[in-house]
Design a protein that fits this description.
globular, alpha/beta, binds shikimate-3-phosphate, about 180 residues, about 60% helix, 7 helices, five-stranded parallel sheet
């Protein structure tokens, strides 16, 4: 079993991915963390040293390594599905799930927790909102190539997270029927 969680920054891929992996008794990986560990640099440092194009190359390489792992949930970066053959690759290698949150949820979460993300670190208020709206519109066609889609807005406490995990379990079980 190999599950890829995709979706915009702040949609809850890591939060849900960790809980899903525990529930299924498999291993959780966060693609950004794998990149940071392998290259011994933060995502911010990679962006400033190699630019976004350099980051996307490393992201591609690590995704294609992680795509060989067995029994894993992999939380991707928000941009992962847009580059190279990444989205088709994930659809070939496992179950892809688009975690879709409303613009309001994304703005709220990214206002609180945007600093570590180079694409938005210096943005706030209406500038952040406009950026999110525009980038999401560009990215959504890629996200919609995922096999499944679930809402990411309700991940605010343990109960909501557990409900979302069960929803994914149901989707995956249906496939086996
Ligand atoms: C990015 C999202 C980040 C990280 C990098 C670029 C993006 O991951 O990969 O900052 O292009 O949306 P998260 O989605 O986990 O924040």
């Amino acid at each position: 079993m190999r599950i890829f969680l995709i979706g915009f920054m702040g949609t809850g891929k890591t939060t849900l991915g960790k809980a899903l992996a525990i529930h299924l008794g498999i291993t959780f990986y966060d693609l950004d963390q794998l990149i940071e560990q392998r290259y011994m640099k933060s995502i911010t440092d990679i962006f400033s040293k190699y630019g976004e194009d350099g980051f996307r190359e490393l992201e591609y390489k690590i995704l294609h390594e992680a795509g060989e792992f067995e029994n894993v949930v992999i939380a991707c970066g928000g941009g992962t599905p847009l580059y190279y053959d990444n989205m088709d690759y994930m659809n070939r290698k496992g179950d892809t799930i688009y975690l879709k949150s409303s613009i309001e949820t994304l703005i709220r979460r990214l206002e609180e927790d945007g600093a570590k993300r180079p694409l938005i670190a210096k943005k706030s208020g209406s500038q952040l909102k406009d950026f999110i709206v525009e980038l999401l519109a560009k990215r959504e066609p890629y996200y919609l190539k995922a096999r499944y889609s679930i809402k990411g807005d309700r991940l605010e406490d343990k109960k909501q997270i557990a409900e979302s995990v069960r929803e994914i379990e149901k989707l995956l079980n249906k496939k086996l029927d």
